[in-house]
Amino acid sequence: MPKPVEIAQLIAGEVGFFAATIKHVGDTRIGDTVTEDARPASAQLPGFEDIKPMVFSGLYTVDSHEHTLLRDALEKLRLNDSSFFFELRVQSRWVSVFAAGFSACFIWRSSRRGWSGNTNWN
Fold first, then answer.
1. Distance of alpha carbon 66 from alpha carbon 80, whole angstroms
2. pLDDT (tens digit per residue) in 17-43
3. What pLDDT digit, counting tens, does each position of 40-54 carry?
4. Which is nearest to 74 in space by CA: 55, 92, 101, 54?
5. Phi, psi (5° rounding) for residue 35?
6. Can you tell me the distance from the alpha carbon of 117 to that of 73, in angstroms, rounded to the nearest whole number?
7. Does the predicted TM-score (pTM) go above 0.90?
8. Half-sphere exposure of 98 (CA within 13 A, CB side)
9. How far is residue 12's CA from residue 36's CA, in Å, rounded to a whole number?
10. Whose C-alpha in 48, 69, 74, 95 is 20 to 30 A from the C-alpha of 9?
């Protein structure tokens, strides 16, 4: 069984991981260049582009008191799908709508599992 081994540097063909204290995972993106404060990289590595969502939707709760539950569920979804994003758009005093964008893979996964299986809502 493979075990982690500490080394000074990785070279081409090697795979590694690092631990970091990141307050908000949403502040990171797949393909981010990791660098040191003492020796910052002059530019990010070439070839990485932001994933662009393909489908857009408005999401809202039937009961206004479930707004926080929906926001928390959307935060968790953002951790699982790097193309997923959402922002709060207030329609009126009584209705808050989250505008969301995501990839087609997200739709396929969600429809297969069903929304009811992903939350504590009835």
1. 22
2. 878 787 776 677 767 777 888 988 888
3. 888 887 877 777 778
4. 101
5. -140, 170
6. 12
7. no
8. 22
9. 19
10. 48
